[in-house]
Amino acid sequence: MTLTIQAFTCPRCKRGEFRSLPGTDGKAYCPWCGDAVAGGVAPGSDPPSAPEGAAAPVVTATLDELLERVARNAPEDAVRALRERLADLNRKREQAESDLRQELDKKVLIKKAVMEEVGRLGSQMGETKVRLKQTEEEHQSATSEMFRVKAELEKEREKTAELSASRASLEAELEERRKAVRELKDASDVARRDAEQMLAHLDKSRATSAAELAELRKKIASYEARLATQKAVEAELNSLKPRLRDQQRLEKERAEFQEKASTLQTAVGKKDERIRELQLLIKTLGERLNDLSSRHP
Question: Left if phi > 0, otherwise alpha if psi is -120 to 50, otherwise beta: which for 47?
Answer without folding.
Answer: beta
